[in-house]
Structures are given as C-alpha cells and as structure tokens.
Amino acid sequence: MSEEDAGLKEESPSREVETPVDPGIVAVASDSSRAASVDRRSSSMEPAGNLENQLVLLSVFYQGKPLKLPGTHDHIHKVVFRILKNVCGLWSGSYNTDVLGDWGQRQCSQKVAMEITTYAYECAVPRPADLNTYYKSFTSETYGETNLEQMASIIDELGIGSHDVFVDLGSGIGQLVCFTAAYAKCRKSVGIELSQIPANYAKNLGGHFKQLMAHFGKSHGRFEHHQGDFLNPKFKKLIVEEATVIFINNFAFAPDLMFRITNELLQDLKHGTRIVTTKPFGAHKKDITYRSTGDINSISDTRELTSLEYGVSWTAKQVKFWLTTMDHTKLIRYYEAERQKKLEPKSREGSDEVNEREKKTKKRKNGKESDGECSSSNTSQNGKKKDKKKKVAAGTAVFTASTGALFPPNYYK
Fold it and tell me: What is the pLDDT of residues 370-396, one digit of tens each?
C-alpha cells in the first residue's frame, strides 16, 4: 500500500467490518490500467470487467459497495458530480458517525432517503418533462407525481413501518415505492403501473436505487415494480389480502374507474386496511342511513390528512390527501342500533301495561281501604247514636206511647 493510501486510512471502523473498504472516491472511465489499480485498492469491488463505458465510485461508507454507472450519458455525469460534492462535504478520512451524521447510519433518515431516491430518479429519467407525453391528457391516465416530502409526512402520520405491506396503485415511475422502502422499511413495497413506458422507467429506477443504497451502506425493505392493470384479478390477492396501506393518486380518475375500484377492490379489503387518496372514496363525517348501507362509507371511516403546500407536481395549489380506514364493525354497530330501536317501543308498551295494572291494583286497594274507613266510621257513628239513645232512655223524662205524655222519672217510683 502506498503512503497516500495509508494516509487516507486514518481510523478503522468502530464496528466489526467483514469486508473492509479502503476509503476514497474514484471515478473510472475507459483507462484499463487505472481500472486495474482501482481493483487492487478495493478488496470489496467486484471484477471490473469491461469498464470502457462505466463510471465507478468507491464507497467511503460502512459496508458500502462500489457504484457502477453508465458513463456515456450527460445526466449521469451530473448525478455523479452531485454525489461527489455531497460526500466530499462529509468525508474526512473517518467512518465516525459523528462526522458522517445520518449518512453514517444503516437506517435511512428522511433526508437521506429523499436524497438517494432523487439520485435514482435522476439516473433513470434524463428528461422528466417527457413523461407527460406517455399519458392521455385529462383522463384517468394523466400523469402526476406526489412529492417525497408529502409522502414522508404521510408515512410519519400513519406510522408506516416494517410490519406493513405498502401498495401504490398507479405507481408511475415508482419513486414512492423506493422511497417508502428506504424510509419506512416496509415488509414489502409494491408498485403497479398500467402504462408500459413509465413501468420500464420504474424498473430502471429500481435498479439504480438498489445500487445507490448499497453504495451508501443503507438497508431497505423489499420492493417490487409491476406493469399491468391493478384491477386485473392476478393482483387481487396482493391488494385485498396482503396490503395494509394502499396509495392511490386518484385526483384525475373518472367516475366509472372510481366506481370499479370501490366495488371490485375496496369492498373486499380486510378490516383495518388504510387507503391514502387525493380524492376521498368515503363521505367525510357522514353517518350511516338505511340508503347508504351499501356504500363504502358504511364499512369505513374517512378523515383528512396533513397536506403540504406544493405537495404534488401537477399544480402549485395545495392538494388535500385523505385517509380511508376499513372498519367492518361499523355496519354491525348500525344494525344493532336499529334492532334496539325496534325493540324499544315493545319494551315501552310492556312497561306501560305493567304500570297500568299496578295503577289499577293500587286503585282497588285504595278503594277497599276507603270503604273500610267508611264502614268503620259508620259503625262508630251508629254506636254513638245507640249511646245517645241510651242516654235519652236514662234521661229526665220518659215518653209513653199510650198517652203520649211525658212524665218525670220519679213518676214510676
């Protein structure tokens, strides 16, 4: 090893390194002798092979891999320049994470995930404006991108993580799928795109993303890009049974497509599945009625998410994002409440009858008591009369029926 090489290797990583990578950044063109020297300096580099049309960057990051990019495209040179500029601002000949900051960690922060996804996007799509030519204007196929900042906000607000399966229906060139795999590290992130050309871009972007993540020594979740109609039955198991978070940029979707998505997919989603959209499927804060029991609102709840200014590419105005969460117990609760309402009048009737019977019984009792009181009062009155008669008979005069005369008591003595 030369003195120059030894000088660059000031500090070994604090963690155990299975395959040490000599720090340094090297751009390699068609010079075969230079390629051979690069191959000797990096024990982790795969055989360079034919490097005539390649740029190769050695990694300065822990467990980082060499990055090989096609060297015949101007837009690739710009990406490489940006990477070099970024890394040179971080690298000081040390693996110390205090120096490298977030870039020295295996897990991607929001900023790092955005940077790497942007590098992959710029490598895969030389002229982003050309993407609009592959879609029909003012139709459900109109192209539009959700910005990575907005996607990061959604991931944070929903708490998307390693336990989730993220599915992007109408994924375009697939940058949201890659970003979610890097930032949220989902168990699986899947994009399904109908148009062939954007789907080809997505696979190209995915290839660059993998290389860049390996170059910067970052881990990510599994991700896939598919070309096809997401309403095709071959994707139904993925969407209905596996997905826990579904993203649909349905801002420009026609009513007939919205109807098909609702009836062919959303109605069959499992309980707890979350759907993020730019146009709500369910009614916001709307109660269930008899007429709406067949509507998506009867088995879901919809609320507005945090929407960032300039969160999308197709307009400078703020576009609202909505979260619809499948809740199968909602309809059960509605029918139970309706059943209770039907039972309540009968229970009220029964209680009224009981009350009426109790009133009649009480009335009869009260009547008997009053009759008893009357008879007792009459008896007492009659007793008083008899006593009075007795008093009269023992009074001062006696009336004789024969003469009608009234004689004094001493008359009979």
Answer: 655 555 555 555 555 555 444 444 444
Mean pLDDT (whole number) for 173-181: 97
Nearest to 109 by CA among 53, 179, 54, 40: 179
The CATH fold of domain 106-336 = Rossmann fold (3.40.50)
Q: Are 227 and 196 in contact (CB under 8 A)?
A: yes
Strand-pairing partners, residue 275, are: 246, 324
* pTM for this prediction: 0.70
Cα 395 to the chain's mean position, in Å? 108
pLDDT in tens, 260-286: 999 999 999 999 999 999 999 876 666
Alpha helices in 12-73 (DSSP H): 32-41
Closest C-alpha among 261, 280, 235 to residue 140: 261
Return the HEC string of 183-208: HCCCCEEEEEECCHHHHHHHHHHHHH
Sign of the torsion formed by the C-alpha atoms of 35, 37, 41 and 44: positive
What are the sequence ranges of the domains in the chain? 54-89, 106-336
